[in-house]
Specification:
Oligomer: single chain
Shape: elongated
Helix content: 10-25%
Strand order of the largest sheet: 2-3-4-9-10-13-14-16
Number of strands: 17
Number of domains: 1
Length: 219
């Protein structure tokens, strides 16, 4: 095969490649919600964004494993780690470099790692637990049957979940969501895995998150 043919073939492959060249470090405004009404996400980084359309996924739970307890007992290991493997993540818009897509089908391999913590006790109505996580994954966007992009993702932040006090040392989250909220990549580089933050009853935060969920648009 001539050198000219090899060069043309290499250029064609490069032009057709949808892979995002460098790992994407997710930053604030990025999150993943696991919710009884349907999961959703927004991933944002420099030169990259992908957002699930809420309206198209209500009632649709994308696959994955979640190892957190519910109900949880005081002293029980609380581990809200979560993984997916080639899970369908719904439809929505994306921007990859200089290219913007109006509506892609998203598939992902996502791993949220949380260091297990003993579930705390409280005499209050409930407790909001926030635990540090680290994240790695791959997100793929398809335009019909055509792969539009494939991006390696990374990040870190805090989980957020509210538990009601059932009495007798038992706490239930029920229909409340678990949210993974990403922090600034530089600030979240070393997220203190041994720490567990308690925010009292958490009722105000829980109500605010519910209002945000119902008001925000975004499969």
């Amino acid at each position: 095969m001539s050198r000219r043919v090899l060069v043309v073939a290499a250029l064609a492959l490069a032009a057709a490649s949808p892979a995002w060249a460098d790992p994407v470090a997710l930053r604030p405004l990025s999150f993943l919600d696991l919710d009884f009404e349907g999961n959703r996400f927004r991933f944002v980084a420099d030169g990259f964004s992908a957002t699930q359309d809420d309206a198209s996924t209500v009632g649709i739970q994308f696959g994955g494993t979640f190892s957190g307890c519910d109900p949880c007992r005081v002293g029980e290991a609380y581990n809200p780690s979560y993984t997916t493997t080639n899970a369908f993540l719904g439809h929505g818009p994306a921007t990859v470099g200089a290219t913007t897509y109006a509506n892609l089908a998203f598939f992902g391999d996502l791993t949220f790692d949380v260091t297990p913590q003993p579930f705390p006790g409280t005499d209050g109505r409930g407790v909001t637990l926030m635990t540090p996580f680290t994240f790695t994954g791959t997100l793929r966007g398809f335009d019909g049957n055509q792969l539009a992009f494939s991006a390696a993702l990374s990040g870190a932040g805090l989980t957020n979940r509210f538990f009601f006090n059932d009495g007798g040392g038992q706490f239930s989250a029920g229909e409340n969501r678990l949210t993974f909220v990403f922090a600034d990549p530089t600030a979240a580089a070393t997220p203190e895995p041994a720490s567990l933050f308690l925010l009292g009853t958490g009722s105000a935060l829980f109500a605010a998150r519910r209002r945000f969920s119902r008001a925000s648009p975004s499969r």
